[in-house]
Batch of 2 targets.
Target 1
Amino acid sequence: MSIHLENIAKHYGRGGRHQALAPLDLDIQQGELIGLLGPSGSGKTTLLRIIAGLEAPDHKPAGRILFGERDVTQLHVRDRRIGFVFQHYALFRHMTVYDNVAFGLTVMPRRQRPSSGEIRARVHRLLEMVQLEKLAGRYPAQLSGGQQQRVSLARSLALRPDVLLLDEPFGALDAKVRQELRRWLRHLHDELNFTSVFVTHDQEEALELSDRVVVMSDGRIEQIDTPEALYRAPANRFVFKFLGDANHLEGEVRDGVLTCGDARLDVDLPDGPEDLLLRPHEVALDTAPRESAHLPVTVTAISPVGAEVRVELAADWLPGPWLATVRHADFERLTLSRGQRLFALPRRWHRFEDSAPAAHDSAALLAG
Ligand SMILES: Nc1ncnc2c1ncn2[C@@H]1O[C@H](COP(=O)(O)OP(=O)(O)OP(=O)(O)O)[C@@H](O)[C@H]1O
């Protein structure tokens, strides 16, 4: 089921003074898994609740919500064929796992309700998919948080919704279980081919799970793109900074040289103030400066855990610390240690004028 939002806005408070969502459009394709990502208060939950029909959008502008060809703007939540999963497992505590999953089917009006044989088959199939068949007779209190959330997933899918909406579904769980549940969701999604929208403020979760991510801030959509495109080509400074660590290089450009205290870097930019951004993996380190890059730094912390070594750098010319990630081989070659004085070499940097983002490969490394 595709979802089409057109001119959807939401204001709260007396006289609608507080804007939760600016008028926005959004198109979600059939079968997509979409992450709504943004800081607290950016409007993710409001948007999800409006798609669900738990919240009405503003009347002015008069927006529209279509599920496929069907205009559901005025339709009650129970008629939208939606499944929900929330952060706090809303399982019925006095019912077994089996009964929790079967519940939505057993309370359907008699004429629509599947036969009891079919209900049984459907519930077993779902429990099998989330590998909880053996625990069908248990009560929620006898399950771990991750298992409870798998029951929630199975329960929300029992009614074969066209659209599955999830609000911070794994927020209350520890990192390892979250990881596992993401795989469950992705797997169920691909196998059953419904359309899903989930809310998260966790960028890693959004990037790992989504086909496309909707990045929000302040009630607006900043960018909608695949995880790869978001990371490679962020539309603006907000998206760049929200999606990962960012090092700032602020200074003044004169005749193709950016200067900041005793640091300087050749840049092909017009004269004037600049604030360039660099990802940690775009900062290389060496024992000598280059003709085109003289950025003296001191190592203040080293964390050699994981696939790469994270190195924190400070300098008088820097208002805040920089983070560089280097390969273990380079870490050993440079025999890095705390207090060591080195030179940072930007491999690449990014520049945002709000309309025209640009990434530049640095001449510093090439020039040698
Ligand atoms: N029922 C409400 N009444 C008044 N203001 C509300 C209501 N619900 C949300 N808001 C406001 O609307 C804005 C968007 O809230 P929303 O819950 O959609 O953000 P969010 O991105 O989901 O945040 P979080 O990650 O913290 O849940 C916030 O400023 C919030 O205070």
Target 2
Amino acid sequence: MLKLENLSKSYGKKRILEDISLEIEKGEIVSILGPSGCGKTTLLNLVLGLAKASGGRILFDGEDLTNVPMEKRGFNIVFQDYALFPNLNAYENIVYGLRNYPDRSTEEEVKDLIELLGLGKHLEQRIDELSGGQKQRVALARTLVMKPRLLLLDEPLSALDGLIKESIKERIRMVARQLDLTTLIVTHDPEEALTLSDKVLIINEGRIAQFGTPVEIVNSPANGFIRRFILSQLTVKRDNIFRLFALETGPVNVAPRVHAEAPSLAAS
Ligand SMILES: Nc1ncnc2c1ncn2[C@@H]1O[C@H](COP(=O)(O)OP(=O)(O)OP(=O)(O)O)[C@@H](O)[C@H]1O
């Protein structure tokens, strides 16, 4: 279990995160969601160990990791730009980390991961010959062969579109379930967070606005920010789609809505 206790972070006098407390169970997928600049990446960096907390504690399975260096935490991240080695093919990228830690995964386990992520056909290809979705799966495989205790994903879907996005969402869910792997995902997209995760942590101006299951957030938004930031964006999307299908199939009764409270999407 990952436990954050009153975690805070400041840069100089600027308070970035304040009083972040929560518990994440083993195997849960949790999205960190919020508008641009609210502190999502900072929180991911604190958990990973790339940044040092100004206050509070980070515990994993009861062990205090707050001052443990990144390489000793046993966590691993897939960065937004994948950070793959362009001079190596897909397979060489996947097994790269095993050079120094050959006992981390057996050949059989590597094969299983390649199959789980549907990469069998692409192993010989160079990185620049792969699509965005294939690169994302290679980056996931490369991270997973190292058997992290916690998987961190920074905007894993933002560079992907349409069906590819749905397929990567499915793969992330399969990986988390099959490996019983606690997974933390940063995203700025409410639809992505609510459809991918077991729980969503919504941050506003460095504080927790709500932490709950997608159903809890949709049915019982904790405050006006959640209603404005999350629900109005989703309602606009839903109504647009309903209206589009109504044009094709006749009278589906969805009146155009005016969202007086809808925030500027540019903020997210
Ligand atoms: N190294 C740093 N020094 C000073 N301020 C920083 C540093 N890193 C981040 N910040 C500030 O902390 C705040 C939160 O940044 P963070 O990157 O965590 O936001 P975010 O929610 O991930 O935003 P986005 O969705 O735009 O990536 C911002 O105001 C940013 O300017």
